[in-house]
Design brief:
The chain is about 30% helix and about 25% strand. It has helices at about 1-15, 20-30, 35-40, 55-70, 85-100, 130-140, 160-170, 185-195, 225-230, 305-310, and strands at about 45-50, 70-75, 75-80, 105, 115-125, 145-150, 180, 205-215, 215-225, 235-245, 245-250, 270-275, 280-285, 295-300, 315-320. Helix 2 packs across helix 3. It binds flavin mononucleotide.
């Protein structure tokens, strides 16, 4: 009987020690296909953006993806350049498709092995990628890598291009795909599905704030953003947070945000609003594996180490003061 009591006590402690972000991501994984896919994606390893562009539109998209993911970039150049004029270029693409040609690529990626993810970009030509893209992809060992295509086009979606590429690479799983339109929010939202494109919060101007935790004062800063200001307007704010594996989390906040503010992943010391629970979160551990935590709105950062906060126990009373 005593042993049974002890087991029950240990089990209830374990439940308390699981942070809110973990609890809910588990719930989501159990209840929805959308949440499930988000659970399994992780931004890890080096990233390459490889692209072909004839008139610069895809080049711009590629450079945006590079900026948002911190990737290396490689321009795919056909050894025999495509005709610049539309009609002969279209004719060549038609002939290439008919012949299932593999136009040679000039140059190679120096060390493809180092990349875990390759974004591959192209203009849609006659409903699919220029055949030089097939040549490029077929010339590397891509099995086990994540291959994510993107395109630009006069209006045609990417789907038929993916079908054609997948035929040429039966052993490689080609994921997702986006027709990039120049809408930065759309691009960011798409990249976030793969765990990329976190808002570069470090570079934002900051507002000094105080966190009084269990009576002890900690210096922090809030970003100069709408969500952070919408919360600060309500200061002083009292919240009780519970400690989990990754964070202290709790409260029921009212934060104004739009989709563009929403990020995935965190750094230890980040102060965030977690949308599903309307919670205030102080992240303390596990930044290296944080890409599976989404629906976060960055608010600010603790100045200095979070160890002093961790030392305060499993439940903390926090007052956010201007
Ligand atoms: C030969 C050729 C064929 C094209 N075929 C299509 C097409 O089938 N569907 C479409 O929406 N746009 C088509 N376009 C338009 C291009 O996909 C679009 O302008 C693209 O953004 C150009 O990218 P770039 O500037 O990186 O070369 C075609 C353009 C060319 C030159």
């Amino acid at each position: 009987m005593k042993i049974l009591k002890l087991i029950l006590m240990i089990m209830s402690c374990m439940v308390l020690l699981v942070g809110c972000t973990e609890n809910a991501s588990q719930k989501q994984a159990d209840t929805g296909a959308k949440a499930k896919s988000a659970e399994f994606v992780k931004a890890e390893g080096k990233v390459l953006v490889a692209y072909y562009s004839q008139t610069g539109t895809t080049k711009k998209a590629a450079e945006n993806i590079q900026r948002l993911t911190g990737a290396d970039i490689f321009e795919i150049k056909p050894a025999d350049p495509y005709p610049a004029a539309h009609a002969p270029c279209l004719e060549r693409q038609k002939q290439d498709i008919k012949a299932d040609a593999r136009p040679a690529v000039a140059g190679k990626v120096a060390d493809m092995k180092q990349y875990k993810t390759v974004f591959v970009g192209f203009p849609v030509w006659y409903y699919q990628a220029p055949m030089v893209i097939n040549t490029f992809l077929e010339s590397y060992e891509l099995e086990g890598k994540r291959i994510i295509p993107f395109c630009t086009s006069g209006g045609h979606p990417i789907d038929s291009s993916i079908v054609a590429l997948q035929k040429s690479l039966p052993k490689v799983k080609i994921e997702g795909g986006l027709r990039v339109t120049g809408d930065e929010n759309e691009l960011k939202n798409w990249l976030q599905k793969y765990g990329y494109a976190q808002v570069q919060t470090n570079s934002k101007a900051s507002v000094p704030v105080k966190l009084v935790i269990n009576g002890k004062s900690f210096e922090a800063m809030f970003y100069d953003t709408k969500p952070a200001h919408s919360l600060l307007e309500q200061a002083p704010i009292n919240v009780q947070l519970n400690r989990g594996r990754r964070d202290f989390c709790g409260g029921n906040l009212n934060v104004q945000y739009t989709q563009v503010d929403v990020v995935r992943g965190y750094k230890n010391g980040d102060l965030m609003y977690w949308i599903p629970g309307k919670n205030f979160v102080i992240f303390t551990n596990g930044e290296e594996n944080s890409a599976d935590v989404g629906e976060l709105v960055p608010l600010g950062k603790v100045n200095g180490s979070v160890q002093d906060i961790l030392d305060l126990g499993d439940t903390i009373e926090v007052v956010i003061k201007k």
